[in-house]
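Worked example 4.2. Below are the chains of a multi-component assembly; read each line carefully before continuing.
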Amino acid sequence: MSLAIVNGLDNTVERPGERAPLVLGDSTYHTITESVCKIAENPPSKAWIIGFLVSATLASWFGVCIAWLFYTGVGVWGNRSPVFWGWPIVNFVFWVGIGHAGTLISAILFIFRQDWRTSINRAAEAMTIFAVVCAGTFPGIHVGRAWLAFWLAPYPSLNLWMWPQFRSPLLWDVFAVSTYGTVSLLFWYMGMVPDLATFRDRSKNKWRRMAYGILSLGWSGSSRHWMRYEKAYALLAAFAAPLVLSVHTIVSFDFAVSQVPGWHTTIFPPYFVAGAIFSGFAMVLTLMVPARTIFSLEKLITIRHLENMCKVILATGSIVGLAYGTEFFIAWYGQVPAEMFAFTNRAFGPYWWAYWTMVTCNVISPQLFWVKKFRTTPWIIVLISIFVNIGMWFERFVIVVTSLSRDYLPSAWGYFSPTWVDWSMLVGSFGLFFTLFLLFCRFMPVINMAEVKATLAQQIHMTHGDDH
Amino acid sequence: MSEHVTKIKPADDPAFKLPTALGALSVPLCVGGVIALVIGWMLGCFAVDYRFGMSAYLTALIYCLTVALGSMFFVLIQFLTRAGWSVVVRRIAELLMMMVIPLAVLFVPILVSVWSGGTLYEWTNANFVEETGFDDGAWKAKTGYLNPQWFTIRAIIYLGIWIGLALYYFRGSSRQDETGERTITERLQARSGPALILLSLSMSFAMFDWVMSLAPTWFSTMFGVYLFAGSMLATHCAIAVASYVLQKNGALRDEVTVEHYHDLGKYIFGFVFFWTYISFSQYMLIWYANMPEETEWFWDRHTPGSIWVYVSLVLIFFHWMLPFAGTMSRHVRRNPKLVCFWGCYLLVMHFVDIYWIIMPEAEQGMGGIIGILASLLCVLGMVGLMGGLVLMKARQTGVVPARDPRLLESLQFHNI
Amino acid sequence: MAETNTNKRVHGIVAEYTSVDSLLKASRRIRDAGYKKIDAFTPFPVHGIDEALGIKPTVLPWIALAGGLTGTITALVMQIFMNTIDYPYIISGKPYLSLPAFMPVAFELTVLFASFGAFFGMWALNGLPRFSNPMFTDPRFDRATDDRFFLYIDAKDDRFDAAGVERLLGETGTEYINQVVADDSPTTIPKPLITIITIVIALSIIPALIVAKMRVTTSSQPRFHIFPDMDFSPAKDLQMVSTLFADGRSMRPDVPGTVARGQLNQDLDFMTGIDVEELSRIDLPRAQKLARAYSPSALLDDEPKTADKPMAAGKSDAVPDAIEEVKAPDAAASIPAETVPEPTKPATENPSNQPSLNAAEKSDSVDTAAPVVDNTPWLKRNPLVIDNEVLQQGQLQFNIYCAVCHGANGSGNGLVNRRAQKILATTWTPPSSMHDEAIYSDKYPDGKLFNTITNGVRKMPGYGAQIPVEDRWAIVAYVRALQRSQNASLDLVPADQRQQIQERKQAIDKALAEQAEQEKKKAAEAAAKKS
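Applying the procedure described above to all three chains together yields the following structure tokens:
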């Protein structure tokens, strides 16, 4: 068997006993370097510039809205009694969830030795960090006086004479999200060091060389370094995997430790985690499918990669569906009137439209991935991924808003309406996210070259047999 | 790249067969198991109280069932992910999964108890509302679900699903031993997705029905996941222990390597963590919200002075902390003897977990020395019986899927 | 091939390979030849190279474990100290030591510290960052991060001998062998970079300096608001314009036909301290005005839309029947509180008309300052039934509101007065002494005293808005009691309490005498020191 796999060959078929190639075409180590580096070295394409301008405009608008919020107060949002946790918290949970796929792809798939992660993990990790940036913004500005948010830190304050309250889930959130952001950043950066060294060694320009030189810490590729590096990477992966679990678990605690009907359910932790992975993978696909075409990376991000991600979406989508069902069942089984009402109200109350949008997008639309044709057609993948993202946003909306708008006290029931600031901030956070992501594509290695080369070496080793 | 296995032994190699020393144990195990089980059950029923005896029996049954269902999950997930590393130990899991068939038969006493108005499940009590003051309307709605008829129908459905899946996958896998067809693997892979969904649904609901409803007014959405976590942990332990015992007796000597123990060790470590995560989350949410309809379950296990407080502490220290620290190191995981030790240890701890879940509902404490003896005899008898039956099956089919297309990959498997 | 300048120090020799397999083969060969200080440089981690080069496993996991344990302990100690020991505060019914609630943060910090351990431990063990490396001098070494594999033998190796090593390497199928020489590129940091860094540092210090300066200096300027910080309340004050209502007024009149809580005023005498019946005999218009001012719907009549035209007769429907005969309102009566007291001498007794009696010396006593004879028929008697309870309430209120200026004993020497005297405030009008004869009930009837409390006099503001009517009357009663107490003889005290009072008096006299003596001593000492 030789490696001369014809370009465009279907590597989605894997006969038992053989392993399908993950790097396609007549790729060599050098072509991998070339195809990744040229994205950052060539002048930006028109599509990139337009995309950047649009998203940067939206991001600036986000900034303007935040300034307006600071100037005016949180009343600019639609958060009114009884729904005090409106869109800001919905967006927060949404973005944190998006972030999870990055760590999952990097860490958990690494632990499970899924080699197909190598082509997508870099972009996914970057996505994690940018999503965490977007996510962190919302609770930050939701505290009202954001300039005093440092009060959340446990420092000996001479003005306050008190300590933060560690029995509050909101403080756990602070620790969880900031730890998560930090560890993801370390993980992402560490993975990039060898690739930044490649960038450094290819730069023609002195300043560029110096910048990448500093970023790559003087990486030389020594085997001793690689050995410790791989160990550190494995360790970070091992830490990041439970960390992902814990972060969304703690986010779910924000809701589930309360007594609000519809929030207080013990299934919340695993169900939130599954939902987070679900939405994160959908976002990775939404980004990677167009990116692989624009940057012509089809040989590295193959249909097989996409198909595998679709399968993960299908699996997690089904878990989420089961969790919805279990919640309903237990609400009925428990026979607690408030709980039963909360769930009936979700599906048939004033927010029925949100609930059924959620179910359609999250549970029904991924079921299309049972069909291989849908799993392997890029535009369908993107379409379903976008549906999933919409659905997951609505899931958070449904949880936050339906439960708050009608809780134990019928005299305090209300109906939530977003304001223009709510809308702007949602759209603006997407702008921020895409701005950061496009900058990343422009200046950083979008694909983990070192790992893809290692995968290729493995592939060569397997196909050539044991010639030593 | 020191040792490289490049050839697979022929399918009839003794390394792939159950060692005769073990095969000879099957009948004595079965007989001894049945005797112990019957004595244990009778001791519980007549020396302590009927409900206690039935609970001890149910504990033993659920203990074995969690291992069987965990194994089924293990097998299905290997097919779903097209896993290569696990092929050498997959047959062990397949054999363990076949336990669901005898367990279905052993479930009959539970059904009999339910129909005969026994007190095992409180929802069979017609005077429940008068005795407890539970809301009448809510109780009517609940007993519309929890009543002998529906309980039986659902049990038949769950058991039917499990037996069907077990037979389908076991037959497919053992047919491949003879024919070596790749299409069988492809077929089993293709069906593993829906099969997993069926299994998780039925397992979750079975645990609601059979275990959670022991406390009929209590509910926790997480409960199915909680038992699932324990069952996956027990399964990996059982596989590790079984392959170690087989190796000691001459089978699988070259096939199951340190690398496989390393991986099993990692899973054991991972599931210790996962079990802790799930049980902590469940406890935390109920503790924090502090709502009476939910805290009652933990209150039974928390009441100061009650014996269950100590069992709870045992779980914290010896089901979580000790094995967590013990299996953390790579050196432990790469030592088959230690992996086997922790496997045995955690199988015991898994029993304590199930015991802690079920027995407090019998409201007899541990039932004194006789009660403890009865519980132990029940579980030892059940395990012995199951072990004997599994060995009997293994005698016919061997202990490795000898002609699986991924066997070579599994033999060559290396950890990073 | 080894054609580089030989003047430089040689660090070792490097050979280039094009595939993993040839690199591994060569590595084994070199290792077997007995070389110890060898290393390979590859674009990706090559499996099997550790064994081929004899690299030992790393201690990194232990560093990470240490980090993790530090994290757990830090988190638990921190939380227990903060929430259980130093700042115990019950929240949502949880115990001070809530271990389950402390778990999440403990877990997060464990992971965080362990990750730091793994990450920075890797830096430390690898000696990163290291920007100057002799390997980088090799012209082809740039491809070590692309697609080439390099094997390196260090000159420090015991068996090193340049020619021998080159020969040995030449046999391993390499096409390129080179000596690695010292890096002699300039070590100075480029000037522009230094400039930029300096400027950035300089600029970043400025805010810190500003903050530091603000912290140590005082300023008479109001606080500088970077953020609004809720310092500016959007709530309206009296007399402010509001955009919420069509009439633009932020003070809302009562809804027609309703009486606000505590505003049901029926007894005009009780409310004003004036015998209104008598007044209406003497001065009917004034009595009517008074009645109108105290009627609950008084404000209603002043609505701007009706203010600019004469009051229609029909409008008086809203006015209570007692004063139905009222005609068009006097324009001057726009604010009742100002018009009610002493209309006969508005310039003197009205607190809002200060300038006319600004001079302190002018107002030693009340009556001498009043230019016009007061003919108001004040109530002579306190309408309350005086008992111990009323007097105690009066004392309480007097001590709260009056004593700061008038002194607890009513002598007019309260804290505020003392302070004003001390700083010699030129605009200060000293408060009257309650023991001035002019304020005794024969010259200053109870009703008048009540009115003064309600509406103020000279510099004294009116307390009508703060003190309920009954309490004002109680204060009047208490003031009378104070006046009596100054001139009382011991005979007035019940017999059984005389002894007690005498003892107390002696004790106080003694203490005062001692105090005076001490002060004398102090003064003497001070004088001695000065001289």
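Take a moment to check your reading of the output against the notes. The beta strands of chain C are 10-17, 38-41, 149-154, 176-181, 456-457, 460-461. The CA atoms of residues 32 and 385 of chain C lie 117 Å apart.
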